[in-house]
Design brief:
The protein is of the alpha/beta class. About 35% of the residues lie in helices and about 15% in strands. The protein folds into two domains: about 1-180, Alpha-Beta Complex (Spore Coat Polysaccharide Biosynthesis Protein SpsA, Chain A); about 190-255 and about 265-310, no CATH class. The protein has helices spanning about 15-25, 45-50, 70-75, 140-155, 160-170, 195-205, 240-250, 270-285, 300-310, 315-325, and strands at about 1-10, 35-40, 55-60, 95-100, 105, 120-125, 125-140, 190, 210, 220-225, 230. Strands 3-2-1-4-7-6 form a six-stranded mixed β-sheet, sandwiched between helices. A three-stranded mixed β-sheet has the order 5-9-8. It catalyses: [1,4-alpha-D-glucosyl](n)-L-tyrosyl-[glycogenin] + UDP-alpha-D-glucose = [1,4-alpha-D-glucosyl](n+1)-L-tyrosyl-[glycogenin] + UDP + H(+); L-tyrosyl-[glycogenin] + UDP-alpha-D-glucose = alpha-D-glucosyl-L-tyrosyl-[glycogenin] + UDP + H(+).
Length: about 325
Amino acid sequence: MSEAFVSLITNDDYARGADVLGKSLKRSGTTRKCVLMVTDHVSSHVRDGLKQYWDEIIDVNLLESGDEERLAILARPELGCTFTKLRAWTLKQYEKCVFLDADTMVLQNVDDLFEREELSAAPDVGWPDCFNTGVFVFKPNVDTYHKLLEFAKKMGSFDGGDQGLLNDFFSDWSASGSSRRLPFVYNMVANITYSYTPAFMRYGQGVKIVHFLGAIKPWHHHYDDKTGKVRNIATPSVSDDIFAQMWWDMYKVGGGASSKPSSSPNSWRNWEEARAVYADRRQQWEQGVPDYQGEDRFDNILTHMKAMMVATAPIETVQNKSADVQKTKPNTTDKQT
């Protein structure tokens, strides 16, 4: 039996994430299948565009947690549909799988994850005794799937989403030792809210998978087609700036099964260039010499101010107004080469 990387999207918005995730997997030189689960909320033309990077696209029914109260605590009502992730255990045609959220991006080959046992995952940065379900190793099994559904009916989820449920179901993870605890580089959080910047600058080149947690995703940022640079609409950080730029660089270039492993975005050259650009810009600001003709010109500052106002609004407002922030909003099926 074969092995596969598995992801899930339940709407067209996250399809842009799946586009980059699938492309990044292919460019990492993986030898495993890439499988994408989709619900009927994903339009047919979007599915067709994703076939270039995903070996198999599987229709699944939406599975809601129905726990609005706990999701309200997280201020993330849209996460109720994440219970659909449990459908991954029904993929019995595969012996072992690695699940990757659609808001992750693979920077280096991670086929070694298939040497891990179920359930292997990285600690959650918000509560390290729990694992984060953006990246985990599992073994498809229909019996496990039914047990998960039964557990969900009886116990629910302490956070209203899949992460609370899976942590309670695989409750021995925290005591399992290193055999099931993945290093942070396999699920590195992109934004400054969770990142320790000095450690990031020291170890960031070793990151294998980056995870864009939170309501604001890379595809919500403004991309300047003229300069090829990203203007982060959330509060900028070293790591988020670097990885958001990597995400857009991946989105804007061609990919597919023929892409060479050497084109992985987390190369030494790209990493050093990104760090150098950040250091130069910071030094210019500290010396009171902003680049008024380039990155710091007035229209970019104005765009950033507008974006910051959008970023403080509720998530539905952000999604509705994102077109006002972006001069051009890329279509999921548009592939620039």
